[in-house]
Amino acid sequence: MNIVRVALDLPLPRLFDYLAPDSAQSDIGRRVIVPFGKASRTGVIIEVAAASEHPDDKLKAVTEILRDMPALPPEWLALCEFCARYYQTPLGEVTSFALPPMLRRGKLPRIRKAAQKIAVPPPTPLPQLLASQQAAVDAIVEVAGFHTLLLHGVTGSGKTEVYLRAIDAVLARGGQALMLVPEIALTPQLEGRVAARFPAAHIVCANSGMADAARARGFLDALAGRADIVLGTRLAVFMPMPRLQLIVVDEEHDASFKQQDGLRYSARDVAVWRAHQLSIPIVLGSATPSLETFHHASTGRYKMLELPERAVADAMPVVRIVDTRREKLQEGLSAALLAGLQQRLERGEQSLVFLNRRGYAPVLACPPCGWISRCQRCAANLVLHLADQRLRCHHCGFETRVPRACPDCGNVDLLPFGRGTQRLETMLAERFPEASVLRIDRDSASTPKKWQALLATIHEGSADILVGTQMLAKGHDFPLLTLVGAVGADAALFAADFRAPERLFAQLMQVGGRSGRADLPGEVLIQTEYPDHPLYRALVDHDYVRFARSQLDERRIAGFPPFSFQAMLRAEARSMEQSLAFLAAAREAATILPNSLADAVTLYDPVPMRLQRLMTLERGQLLVESLSRPALQAFLTAWMEKLYALKMPGGLRWHLDVDPLEF
Ligand SMILES: Nc1ncnc2c1ncn2[C@@H]1O[C@H](COP(=O)(O)OP(=O)(O)OP(=O)(O)O)[C@@H](O)[C@H]1O
Ligand SMILES: [Zn+2]
């Protein structure tokens, strides 16, 4: 009697056997409905076998094998199996995540009537490639088999043009191409650009903001081989593509490629594995590659392709450091920046003031009694949002009205401390009454529609001064923008996270790169109290490589990634004691593993997380480190078994994060 082994979306690292008399090998990769407890669940068939290890009379029968769509192909199952192994996540959780929600639930989207074609503008003549662009395209198109290529190109160097040419070559050969882009906002512009370039191609988008049916349809189109190009955010790495011949990861350094909950995967890393699995090339592109990627390119493991100059503008923007140590700032702005803004206004050009902190002020305080606005649920301050008179926790979303008087002592003179984008916006509007000031952050661009409207306003040229967070940093071309001022950047210089400098450098380089992209020369002003800091000096010289090398030297000495490999075990519970006790037990459990496994890793002491309390849960973490990735993997696999067996207090939850990005 045939049985099927099914991956179910449950936090248990095993498959579930069911009787399925009419099943055949061709059912592997099909979705199946099975009884589970009192309910029914949908899973994916991983194996069809003649017998189970469990006695047949203990097994239940499947309810139905869904044969209404093609089976998920073996490569797709292998990709999920790799993620399950590498990220130590049950296979059923992985397959469930990798399927669009509608398909995961066992449903199918309705067939769309004749697909409406979006009106595509008439083709514009292709730009003549620069020699460096041509060399990059040739290198990508000519390689055979698996290769990882790093396209390191300064901002505005025409990386996208290189991707499009390479994709063109792949389509001409009858292949499919997958292009991954960072979260938020970038995709609509890019979709337009790709659609305009390939009017005859079937382009499928995949991101979490899409309606269920559209996502499921895109998945089915990709699975059937009907899609030529799949363009999407990190989850698109799981799109099945039978003729896949090229993967592109744009802005490969972007942290949004790493998922921070559930399946904690890095879409970039999974994409590299997938390219290897399929023996195809993968292009990682960035002006500021992640240090991991840059390291691989330096050692020759990845092939480095360089675009050292801008494609249209004559030169890179001039970067200047504004030393604010001896200056009395006006609401946080230096005389130099104010003068620069004034000058741009007079010339009818746009400016951008970059401050990576939204809200009006990070905290509201009562100086006489010492009260400050704290979140009841998190170990964090409530941020003052004057725009709608709320205090908000940026971690858990809790919000409340701004109190009229201090809740502790009744004093009515509450003071906002520090500065966010709303405060800058207010100040700039007062200071430059004739200017139109536009704030762009997650509050003002809270929906895709609002975000599109804001972008349209900028492109029309009707905004003079933009105040924005990193939302504006990536991928945009604003021809009138000639000045970028960065304020409040110093805070990230001395952050505890060893990746903070890497992130700050990338952010400043990206945001500075928005200026002077057309015929007008660009200027970047960075306000700082540390004018000689090597990070800023490297920005002045546009010298990513110098910065990256010095960071890598520091990491090598400290034994941080990419010179070591890490995993983080995190636990959250009602009390910190419980969390730390669980982590201590987990550490203890490692000591009973064979020495050959345990000796290759270092387990650090359990400690409270930086944000100790989130949503009333107390959180702790335990870092595991090894000099060898395979050794770490082998250890984690054995360790996980012990962890699943540990006793835990009610309400405690834990997870393992492999290659964690946040500490
Ligand atoms: N060879 C070329 N000749 C003329 N224009 C070009 C050429 N290559 C690209 N461009 C144009 O230059 C601009 C910047 O190119 P693109 O957006 O591809 O750069 P990028 O490197 O991806 O930028 P960033 O990383 O800063 O977002 C675009 O408007 C693009 O159409
Ligand atoms: Zn909170």
TrEMBL record:
An individual GO BP term: double-strand break repair
Record-level Gene Ontology MF annotations: 3'-5' DNA helicase activity; ATP binding; ATP hydrolysis activity; DNA binding; zinc ion binding
Cofactor binding remark: Binds 2 zinc ions per subunit.
Binding site for Zn(2+) 1: 366, 369, 406, 409
Entry EC number(s): 5.6.2.4
Record flagged with keyword Protein biosynthesis: no
GO CC terms: primosome complex
Keyword Nuclease: no
Cofactor: Zn(2+)
Cited InterPro entries: DEAD/DEAH_box_helicase_dom, Helicase_ATP-bd, P-loop_NTPase, PriA, PriA_3primeBD, PriA_3primeBD_sf, PriA_C, PriA_CRR
Residues holding Zn(2+) 2: 375, 378, 393, 396
SUPFAM superfamilies attached to this UniProt entry: P-loop containing nucleoside triphosphate hydrolases
Source domain of life: Bacteria
Reactions the enzyme catalyzes: Couples ATP hydrolysis with the unwinding of duplex DNA by translocating in the 3'-5' direction; ATP + H2O = ADP + phosphate + H(+)
Family annotation (Pfam families): DEAD (PF00270), PriA_3primeBD (PF17764), PriA_C (PF18074), Zn_ribbon_PriA (PF18319)
UniProt keyword annotations, A-Z: ATP-binding, DNA replication, DNA-binding, Helicase, Hydrolase, Isomerase, Metal-binding, Nucleotide-binding, Primosome, Zinc
Ranges of residues in domain Helicase ATP-binding: 140-307
Family affiliation: Belongs to the helicase family. PriA subfamily.
Quaternary context: Component of the replication restart primosome.
Protein purpose: Initiates the restart of stalled replication forks, which reloads the replicative helicase on sites other than the origin of replication. Recognizes and binds to abandoned replication forks and remodels them to uncover a helicase loading site. Promotes assembly of the primosome at these replication forks.
Protein known as: Replication restart protein PriA
Naturally occurring in which organism (per UniProt): Sulfuritalea hydrogenivorans sk43H
